[in-house]
Amino acid sequence: MTESAPAPWDPARLPDQSGRTFLVTGANAGLGYFASEQLVAAGAHVILSGRSPNRLAAAHDALEARVPDASVETLLLDVSNAGSIRAAAASVRGGLFKRQRLDGVLLNAGIIHTPRQRETTRDGRELVLATNALGHFVLASELLTTLSKSASRTWTPRMVWLGSAVTRMGAYDPVDIQLEGRYRAWRAYVQSKVVVQALGIEADLRLKDAGVPVESVLAHPGYSIGGRTPRVAGVNEPGAWKRVRDGLQAPIAQSKERGAASLVRALVDPSIAGGEYWGPRHVTRGDPTRQQPSKTSSDPEVRLRIWETCERLSGMEWPFARAARLAGR
Predict the structure, then answer these.
(1) pTM value > 0.90
(2) What would the pLDDT profile of 220-249 be if each residue is shown by its tens digit?
(3) Strand partners of residue 160
(4) CATH code of the region 21-326
(5) In the chain, what are the domain boundaries?
(6) According to its UniProt record, in which pathway does this protein act (predicted)?
(7) What angle do CA 156, 160, 162 make, to 5 degrees?
(8) Which residues of 178-203 are buried (b: 16+ CB within 10 A; e: fewer)?
(9) Alpha carbon 213 to chain centroid distance?
(10) Phi, psi torsion values for 265, nearest 5 degrees
(11) Which helix H or strand E contains 264, and what residues bound it?
(12) Cα–Cα distance list, 134 to 167, 201, 268 (Å)
């Protein structure tokens, strides 16, 4: 007797997430908003984080209007600002929110439309790297012990890193990780995503080696665009021309709502293991499936160099031993 094929992943029918709390960065728009909506609809409590109070409030109101009995709250967090990251993490650790546990973090926030000229943060870090990768390296470190304390026999907390299919388009080995030699907007984006993917893979290996009961998983959304995404007041309001222009890309594109499905599956599907990489079946669109990261981001030497560089740039090391100890490992 042959086994029946598993049912397709349906974002509208997720495994019950009641009693769990997730933090989503960049949750006020795009992928972060729709990932949050899917989690909330499954019963999770979601902490919406972002750097704009007004946009966070709009996302909060939209979720409450679209999802009956939505359990959400907001957290000011600018992932390009180390001080903001540490303050936000301290708020979560300090129990200022409604829930005393943290079951997962979706490291989603980032810059897609990169600046033409190289820009730096107030502490001198290249802006795209700081926003897409380095800030999340710091945030994951700051929240590691909080995540580890939520581990149980039935649940292993997760951090999900937002990669990109564009990393397959070339080697893009980030030797000059801050692009101090020659900056190009496209390279800044692709390199930052190589860094993200390398960190996600390396993090999972180090978590396993240290005996920390937290998983690190990678996901990418394919080619998800606003003009093919449902209108949500204050969150996604594309004009008529954008609808037409994005509609012409239907054969290769999908909505941000569908793109968010890969991220959410990587966060909550119990069949997924740490270190895996998930994205749309047809690379740019489709149901979430397991895939392979680019050779560069999975190269052990590249991963080690990137991890050590991020430690140096951030001035911090992940508290693996303490996280394992607090989890009782």
Answers:
(1) yes
(2) 999 887 766 677 777 776 777 778 676 777
(3) 106, 217
(4) 3.40.50.720
(5) 21-326
(6) Steroid biosynthesis; zymosterol biosynthesis; zymosterol from lanosterol: step 5/6
(7) 170
(8) bbeeebeeebbbbbbbbbbbbbbbbb
(9) 19
(10) -60, -45
(11) helix 256-268
(12) 17, 15, 24
